């Protein structure tokens, strides 16, 4: 199976697969640790129920087993997420976006949950290497969030171009072509003998208005609809 990379303006979306895998790793480790702590603390004793006697060593072994299952599954999901991280970084390095857009926020959440998973794993394993790597991921996430926040403030508030959306380019042109195709269809039945009204000039004016400037991802209504709305 072969597939091409997203468009240059939407290349940041390659980071999105980090979200489910990173969050899954963090959630699985947290749930396993919570269950292990509950078993260790209560010795399988539900509230207001007399539990059977159980050896303390067996309880500790069961809790430790559950904790290690969480670590193994979390490590597997984190490795899968790291694969997507390498792919995303390579894709963005090859096709660097030309300007900032709202799609850049796809950096923040995936990197945030990925950093949470690494930090959770470093705490479970008490490993200095994972701890350093987790700190690097946290700093990178903060810098990415700060860059997106500053870019959104400047582009959205100062220049008023916040709602530029990659993939919306050419929408006005396609909308004008659809209007032309709909107006070109002649009425059927009893209206065949009647001469259709001369609307070609209005449609051409609408098409020329919509296609006079290439849409850059920000939707603007054609002139005919704007005048109708004004009336």
Given the structure, what is the number of helices? 7
Low-confidence regions: 189-193, 206-231
What oligomeric arrangement do these chains adopt? single chain
**Number of self-contained structural domains:** 2
Order of helices and strands: HHHHHHH
SSE class? mainly alpha
Largest sheet: none
Rg over C-alpha atoms, rounded to the nearest angstrom: 29 Å
Quote the beta fraction: under 5%
Share of helix among residues? 55-70%
Number of strands: 0
The shape is: elongated
Mean pLDDT reading: 76
Distance from N terminus to C terminus (CA atoms, Å) equals: 54 Å
Architecture overview:
- The chain has 231 residues and is mainly α.
- It folds into 2 domains: 8-158, no CATH class; 168-182 and 202-231, no CATH class.
- The protein has helices at 18-42, 56-94, 108-125, 128-158, 171-183, 200-211, 223-230.
- Helix 1 packs antiparallel against helix 2, helix 1 packs parallel to helix 3 (108-125) and helix 5 (171-183) packs antiparallel against helix 6.
- It starts with 17 loop residues before the first helix and ends with a helix.
- The relative contact order is 0.11.
């Amino acid at each position: 199976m072969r597939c091409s990379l997203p468009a240059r303006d939407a290349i940041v979306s390659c980071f999105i697969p980090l979200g489910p895998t990173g969050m899954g790793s963090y959630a699985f480790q947290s749930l396993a640790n919570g269950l292990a702590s509950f078993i260790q603390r209560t010795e399988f004793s539900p509230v207001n129920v007399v539990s059977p006697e159980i050896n303390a060593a067996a309880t500790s072994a069961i809790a430790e087993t559950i904790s290690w299952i969480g670590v193994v599954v979390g490590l597997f999901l984190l490795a899968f997420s790291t694969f997507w991280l390498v792919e995303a970084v390579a894709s963005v390095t090859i096709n660097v976006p030309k300007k900032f857009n709202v799609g850049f926020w796809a950096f923040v959440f995936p990197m945030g949950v990925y950093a949470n998973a690494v930090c959770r794993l470093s705490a479970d394993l008490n490993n200095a290497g994972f701890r350093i790597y987790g700190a690097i991921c946290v700093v990178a996430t903060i810098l990415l969030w700060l860059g997106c926040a500053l870019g959104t403030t400047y582009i959205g508030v100062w220049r008023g171009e916040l709602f530029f959306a990659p993939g919306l380019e050419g929408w006005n042109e396609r909308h004008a072509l659809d209007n032309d195709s709909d107006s070109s269809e002649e009425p059927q039945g009893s209206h065949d003998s009647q001469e259709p009204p001369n609307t070609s000039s209005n449609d051409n004016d609408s098409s020329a208005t919509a296609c006079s400037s290439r849409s850059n991802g920000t939707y603007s209504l054609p002139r005919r609809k704007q005048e109708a709305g004004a009336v």
